Amino acid sequence: MVTIRLPKPSLFLLARVSGFIVAILVLTWALHFKTSFVPYAPSQEDLIYAVLHPLLMVIGFILISGEAILVHRWLPGSRNLKKSVHLCLQGVALASGIFGIWTKFHSNDGIVGNFYSLHSWMGLLCISLFGTQWLVGFLSFWHRGEARTTRVQVLPWHIFLGLYTYGLAVATAETGLLEKLTFLQTIGNVPRRSTESTVVNGLGLGLALLSGIVILTAISPKYHPSKSKESDIQTSNGYHLS
Length: 242
Description:
By secondary structure, the protein is mainly alpha-helical. The chain has one domain: Four Helix Bundle (Hemerythrin (Met), subunit A) (Up-down Bundle). Helices cover about 75% and strands about 0% of the residues. The longest helix has about 40 residues, at about 150-185. The chain is globular and about 60 Å long. It starts with 7 loop residues before the first helix and ends in a 23-residue tail after the last helix. The relative contact order is 0.15.
């Protein structure tokens, strides 16, 4: 059996490019087509909060948490430095996610009025898991009195839940895009064939591509540039295709 592996720098480049495209698309949608958020925003203040919601959840929550996942793969330095940067980035992502959800609850509909769809339920589940994950990670890997054996036992679950929550965040964003676009097309604000529909669909595809690249990079073997190319050519009998 032949295994084909992309060099790790190529994966990092793909992750950064896809993340940049996602950021441009969500900024274009939220700022250029902001009139689409007017039905949810009877006042200027409500409009600002409505526009902030996709920006915070996509750029602040998904993109930054994805970058935090990759820190251990690209950042040089000690393990403590990598863990510090990872924890800080995840903290920024958590704060962005909490504030992003609050912007929806800030509207005149209130909390109950916004807690009706699959998107809202998945969002609350995702931010709850993310917050719990961040707290457990802090206690497990930064509490100096914690036994090493306990940290080793928790690590696989920490990695699994981190990747699961990241995938859940992307899935939640996809349901939000679908819900928003369907609503706008139903009330006639956005035609099915329009520039805005193309931008929103492109944003959904970009998020799906980004999540796949980030997860693949996180679980793939570490890249060692000092190794010769010959050592990277093996098959199931001792060789694989680089």
